[in-house]
Amino acid sequence: MAIKNFIEELEWRGMIHTIMPGAKEELERGMTTAYLGIDPTADSLHIGHLVGVMILKHFQTCGHRPVVLVGGATGMIGDPSGKSQERNLLDEQTLRHNQEAIKRQLSKLLDFESEAPNAAVMVNNYDWMKELSFLGFIRDIGKLITVNYMMAKDSVKKRFNGEGEGMSFTEFTYQLVQAYDFLHLYETLGCRLQLGGADQWGNITTGTELIRRKVGGEAYAITCPLITKADGTKFGKTESGNVWLDPRYTSPYRFYQFWLNVSDEDARRYIRIFTMLDRATVEQLTAEHDAAPHLRILQRRLAQEVTTMVHSKEAYEQAAEASAILFGGATSETLRRLDEETFLQVFEGVPRFTVARDALPLPFVELCTERAQIFPSKGECRKMVQGGGVSLNKERIADPQRPVTAEELIAGRYLLVQKGKKSYYLLTAE
User: Is 234 one of the catalytic residues?
Assistant: First the structure.
C-alpha cells in the first residue's frame, strides 16, 4: 500500500494545532497505532465529531491503525475541558446502546472489518475501568501524578477561576482517568499516539506523562484546531440544534442543506477538512469558485462529498434533487419521488392552507380562490393561468376550470401550487 505522509496530509488541510516532539519520527518508523476518544453521550455522532473522525480516516489511509475509544467510563464522569457545567451521567445500558449505534456510523467511514494490519479497532474504557478498585487506582496511578501538575492544566484552571459552579472531585479526576486509558492502550495495543481537539491537550499530555512515569515508555500527542465558523460562532449548530449523522435526527436533505449554505470563507476551509479530495482537486475547485462565486461551486461539491460519505450516493442525489425543486427544473415525478418528511422540509415556511378531502374534485380556479386564498379573485387567477405562470404539482395549468382530483394528492395529502417563479403554496387535504 502506498503510504502518504500523515503529518503532511493534515498540515495542508489546516488540521494540525499542536504536535508533540517525537511524534513525526514515530510515524516515520512504520505503522503506528493511535487512538481518539468519543463520548457516547448520544446514540448518534454529530458533525462536531466529524473532524476527529476525518483525522482517523486520514490516519488509516496513510497506513496506520486507528483506535476509536468510546468513553463509557469517562462518559459517566464528564470531561471539564471546554465546559463550564458538569454534565449528566449515563447508565451502562444507555452507554452500550450508544456505543453500538456509533460503531454502525463509524463503519461507513473507517475500515473495521478487513484483514489488513491497520484495520480500525473500537474499544470501550468501561471494560477495563469497571474492574478497577478505588484504592487500587489511587495507589497505582494517583501517586504518579501530582496535584500541582493537574492544577496547572488550563481546563482545570478555568473552572477554578470562577467559570461555572466550580469543579467536583469527580471531574477533577477526569484527566487521570483519561491518562489511564492511554496507559492501558499503550500496554495492550501498543498505542503510542493520541489524537484529539486542541482543548484535549492537557488531558492527552497527562497520559504521555503517566506512561513515562509508570513504565518508562514514550508516547505522543497530535491535536487539531477547534473548528469555528468564519463569524466566530460555534460550528455544527443550527437554530434547531446539532446537525446529526443519524438520519432519524437530521434528514439527509437537512444535512445536505447545512453544507450547501455555508459561507464562501467557511467552504474554503471545510472542503479541506471534511472531504478526502486531494490537494490538486481542492485547489482547482477553489480557483473555479473564486472566478464565479455566484455558482457556489465549493459549497455544492462540499455538500456532495460529505452527504455521500455519511449517508449514501442515493441520499445525496435525492437531497440535491429536492434542493433543485425550489429553483425550477423539477417535474411532478420529482415531487412524487420525495418521501413525505423531505417534501415538507423543502416547503417549510411556505403559506399553507387546509382543504376538505371530500370536496375534491374541484375546479382549479375555485380551489385557489374560495378554498385557499392564493389569488384575491377568480379573474386574477384566470389571467395568470392564461399567461402561463401557474402550476399544480410542477405541471403547468392551461385551463383554470380544469378539475383537481384526489388522485393528484402527493403522498395522499398534499397539493403544491406555484404562482410565478418563486411563490409556492401548500394545500393539505384533510
Answer: yes
